[in-house]
Amino acid sequence: MSRPDGVTLLAIPDAGPLFEGHFPGFALMPGVLLIECVAQTCGWMTSAINRFSGLPALAGVKDAKLREPVFPGHSLEFDGKSERFKDDKDADKLLTREYRKGFEISEKT
Predict the structure, then answer these.
(1) Whole-prediction pTM value?
(2) Known catalytic residues?
(3) What does the domain layout of the chain look like in residue ranges?
């Protein structure tokens, strides 16, 4: 991916309600929350690119690859890139990659 349009840093807490029940005895950050982190990163990025002229919304996730689990205490970096295609007049395709200690752990479009 070329230089990102937006970057978000996130420190996963060592404990908290996001880990309750997911999974007892083996705390793991739920994938749906990782996708929410991506949505927040891309929402701010898209808003800034469009000079905050509208409210972006996540219409769907076409493809998501979660390559490694995320545990309490991990630090993550979300890189977002916006691309516009000729046949998409009113939609941007957003590509995001997630890193932990410089290694890619997920990719979503």
Answers:
(1) 0.74
(2) 22
(3) 31-108
